[in-house]
């Protein structure tokens, strides 16, 4: 009995922290979502008015669509390229530790610094790295094809972050680059737990690279892939920093306004705290629903042994 009381005392500090910084804010958000609370005015109870207004707001619908586009293109690309790089690093190449550090550097680098670099890459003038490379390739093509009498091409520098056609793809590309290193480390840990004798036995049976991957690697790293998928889904639906730093107004024609950025605008630009709380709960519901769907349909395909 005395030992049980001691155990409760040991977990008390952690319980207080969780209650103070997690449960109470969630409860406050839930309560505020039923109020019209526009700082500094006092809150007024409005019931479900915030929710009905949100679901009929065209900008909120657009933010959902933008978020879905971001999720659909970011998650598969990140998983594919991170797994590919992890497999290359797992193939007994020299300097694996060095490559781990190199690929993980973007993860630990602040979003502010990364945004500065990518803003330079996407700069609309010719001294932006991407436009500079495209101008160089165009000039090289014109020079090479000039010997054959081809008509020269003219490349006009693109304003990637100022054009609604390119703003979201530009953000997605930057996000893939920044998030690649974390998934590479996770996949590499999973790959190193695959028994080597299974590959040796498969080679004796004449299995090729694809057969070994499909029948050995993929099933045995399925718990790792499942974890990466769940965490990537949650983080992608919560994307904000990249959007805010690269397109602080939500992009041209709101082309990069995602749900969290929409929430930020309502809470800290318009000071509609009740409305923003309702948006936060809707976002939580979406993430929770997606996580449950993934658990129901994918967990049965995960091989833990």
Topology, element by element:
Layout: H1 2-32, E1 35-36, E2 44-45, H2 49-55, H3 58-89, H4 96-108, H5 111-121, H6 129-146, H7 167-192, H8 196-204, H9 209-220, H10 222-237, H11 241-246, H12 259-269, H13 273-298
Antiparallel strand pairs: 1-2
Largest sheet: 2 strands, antiparallel
- Tell how many strands the DSSP assignment holds: 2
Strand content: under 5%
Sum up the overall morphology in one term: flat
Q: What is the helical fraction, as a range of percent? A: over 70%
> According to CATH, what is the class?
Mainly Alpha
For CATH, the homologous superfamily is named as MetI-like
Question: Taking strands numbered 1, 2, ... along the chain, how are they ordered across the largest sheet?
Answer: 1-2
> What number of domains?
1
H-E order? HEEHHHHHHHHHHHH
Structural class: mainly alpha
Domain ABC transmembrane type-1: 64-294
Main location: membrane
Keywords: Cell membrane, Membrane, Transmembrane, Transmembrane helix, Transport
Family: Belongs to the binding-protein-dependent transport system permease family.
Describe the structure.
It is a single chain. With about 300 residues, this protein is an all-alpha fold. Helix 3 runs antiparallel to helix 10, helix 7 packs antiparallel against helix 10 (about 220-235) and helix 12 (about 260-270) packs antiparallel against helix 13. Strands 1-2 form a two-stranded antiparallel ribbon. The chain has 13 helices and two strands, in the order αββαααααααααααα. The chain has one domain: MetI-like fold (Orthogonal Bundle). Helices cover about 70% and strands about 0% of the residues. The longest helix is centred in the N-terminal third of the chain and has 32 residues, at about 60-90.
